[in-house]
Write a structure and sequence with these properties.
Length: about 80
């Protein structure tokens, strides 16, 4: 099975500390084809054998069985009212 992972930044886990990013990214790189610094600009078109075509921002295309879209997280510590604690 071939796994491709794409991310817009140069590391996975972008907002994390550099050491954490590297310790996570390096093992993933050894097991997957990482396409860092690239974004998917288009999804869809004609499926071929159940595979979904994806167009990347450099114009290249890849076909995927599965597409996982994840978004970042926003801290909700403002609701804790830490100044009042």
């Amino acid at each position: 099975m071939r796994i491709e992972v794409g991310a817009p930044g140069e590391h996975l886990l972008g907002p994390q500390e550099e050491t954490v990013r590297e310790r996570f990214t390096d093992p993933v790189r050894s097991r997957c084809d990482l396409r860092l610094g690239q974004e998917v600009t288009a999804v869809g078109g004609r499926r071929s054998a159940g595979r979904l075509p994806l167009t990347l921002d450099d114009g290249s295309t890849v076909e995927a069985d599965t597409l996982l879209v994840a978004v970042g997280r926003v801290p909700n510590s403002v609701r804790l009212d830490l100044e009042a604690a």
